[in-house]
Specification:
The protein is mainly α. It has two domains: 57 residues, no CATH class; 30 residues, no CATH class. The protein is 59% helix and 0% strand. It is built from five helices and no strands. The protein is elongated, with a radius of gyration of 21 Å. The relative contact order is 0.08.
Amino acid sequence: MSRHIVSILIEEITILAADTVVHVRIDGQVKEEATQVLSEMGLSVADALWLLPVRVATEKVFLFDVKIPNTVTLKAMNEAVNGGGTSYSSVDELMADLNADN
């Protein structure tokens, strides 16, 4: 996304007065990688961090679907956290097991 497109999007959202500072802690390597990728899109990390709450506030949506896990998923997650479930030593072993169930 070019800065021109971002500028148009910002104008359509309505320019808001910046009167609050938000501090974000993030892993340095993640920030470096995000900076590079966002730069290729014509954005800065600050642009991306600004766009997130603006979109949430104006459109009442997040950047991706955030879902609450259902009972079956929660049970599986808890089982995995507690060392349960099945482990595989390779992708081939996993695929063999998945295909055996068909």
